[in-house]
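ugh ok fine here u go
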Amino acid sequence: MKKSLILSVFFFLIATIGNAQHQETADKAEMYKGKQNSTTDTTSLLHAFKSGTTHGHFRYFFMSTLNQKGLTDYYANAVGGGIRYETAKYHGFQMAVSGFYIFNIGSSDFTKVDSTTGQLNRYETALFDIEDPVNKKDLDRLEEFYLKYNFKKSTIVFGRQLINTPFINLQDGRMRPTGVDGLWLEINEIKKTKIEAGWLFAISPRGTVKWYDVGESIGVYPTGVNIDGTKSGYSNNIESNGVAVLGITSNINKNLILQGWNMFTQNVFNTAMLQADINFPLKDGSSIFVGAQFIHQDAVNDGGNANQSNTYYAKGQKSITFGGKVGWKNKTWETSINYNRITSDGRYLVPREWGREPFFTFMPRERNDGLGDMHAIMAKVNYNIPQSRLKTSLALGYYKLPDVKDYRLNKYGLPSYTQINADIRYSFAGMMKGFESQLLVVSKFKSGETYNNKRFEFNKVNLVQYNFVLNYHF
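structure:
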């Protein structure tokens, strides 16, 4: 069925372009015969389709995770491509459709468990379909299919689409990003203020090819443990009709940005965030920047299920997190020190299926979701050479977490750790224009007690991971 959806996308595009070309040929023939002397009707629906834009994307992704001696290593090679078409405006309306396919062209056996821990692969399998790890070629998804209405400077979109918010976002660290289905508004009628709001009723997480109702989407990824240490049973057991999101971003002036967000997951939990970013220009053209963030969460009703062994956000629970950053930047350098604290009130929880957390201390390949009583500090240096189309980044973070057996505050049994990321990106020019490459190397080291239990270490700490990505956009 998934393959038929993608084929439908391409047949739709071929039919659209073919019809447009046929009509254009007919028009030219009529003009040649002297039977048509009027100009093209730019207000017609046909013109909107003929004047649409098409974007193509091919992607190759190599990933390899090397665990400590005695534990299983993994590797994966993924390649894929997709196409996106969006019509021109027709009385303010636009339609878009896109699809993407993926092939597994040589990878580890993701169905094989590690002999020491009995656990499966964590990272590489998400390049494909985590629910069907043996599938190597029938991996395709209708990603976007929406109707958009443009009014003044604002838009309203209904259907399958890609959005970026602090809590639901693309988290594009695999082959394809997370998609959503629903109604999304972007209002830009107030000077220096953007308002974003929506009601979402389905989500397709990265690493999957299916679309899930909001309740079903919570628990597609591993679920960890309940606050009493028993295995979480909320997968396929969460009752929720949808997610309401509201975000307001205000550019108070050119050096101060304030934003507030609220995400209400019906019958499960509510998350509210406030953030301020301030820039202080210096005389030499560089600047100092600071930021502050505060997030508060509460359970809604029973947290998704009256049976607390099968609920997502335990009844009566809450979490509080706050963070800050300070840094300096110019045209080529950017350095920063970042801090984040999750208090001991409870676990910070946002479904990993929906996106990565918005913390200043976030580093690719690890999450701090499911934790409480956490201190994190991260230092980062970026060096960019615009004329050479080269971007580099080096980050070092230390994350002090609660004990792995403190189940109330450590959902996934992750020990304290130190992480180092090195990231190099290059954009090609000339004959290779359109190609973009990335090399990301991640190292994670254990800093906390694991009680000589490798289940707390496998694919979590004491590992090195290599990522090479090659994109081509046209």
